[in-house]
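User
New here, help please:
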Amino acid sequence: MPNEAPHTMLYRVEEGVGLIAFNRPDKLNALTPEMLKHFFELVNQAAQDTAVRVILITGEGRGFSAGLDLSVIGTGVSKTSVLTQDTSPLKQWGDDIGPDLSRYFSQGWNALITSRKPTIAAVNGAAFGWGLILSLHCDIRFAGESALFNATFARLGVPAEKGIGWLLPRLIGIARAADLLYTARRFDGREAERLGLVNQCLPDAELMPHALAYAKQIAQNAAPRSLAAIKAQIWSAGDDCYDEAFRAADHEQDLAVQTQDFLEGIASLREKRSPQFKAA
């Protein structure tokens, strides 16, 4: 499909997967205000496209994203205004399915969470600062062996930015999160796997084929309505008590068994074939 964003962002849809790539390889995909704006526009575009069932994020060249381009600092663009997203509610497919994520997350930076579609980061190189944070907003992360991560904030004299102080302890625990945030040290894909920060670290040449095949498998075999409900449950349940989460799951179950997706899922299992779920 044609590119609809400037050359610093790439986007295509392939077999149910919306692939978004940072494309400023000469700068390790360091983020400019324009790149961030177009990135979130593409995330929202993919979130509303019924041909897209999974969103996959990566970077061109040797970097995922080296974070905010530091050249914008001191040019009249403050770090708080580098990305000013419209926080008015954006209607996306699946907003009426599962717990209401607006109870927990705003729009803007949380577009990867509130998209109601699975999001996967394929970290192919440097993921520093804001680049690291964007990967943490994804549901699943894969890394190449040459990936490098760095929570740079303490060395820049700023706090843990853009929700990383909330995300990182929930992903790897308080002590490990404190180590990475306090020291601002670099660590590679293998350590990220040991820490539980990425689901799997792979040889560099295998990273994108694996991540794309993994995303396509979800797109082909999982019902979009079910994915939307499960994602909402995953991101909201940590702030609910057990009984609230249980009641919400029972409610979604009662709704799901009345859908064509449920009938198709049962039929495909009985007939030993791949399911043919319909886009909403």
Summary: The chain is about 40% helix and 15% strand. The longest strand covers residues 9-14.
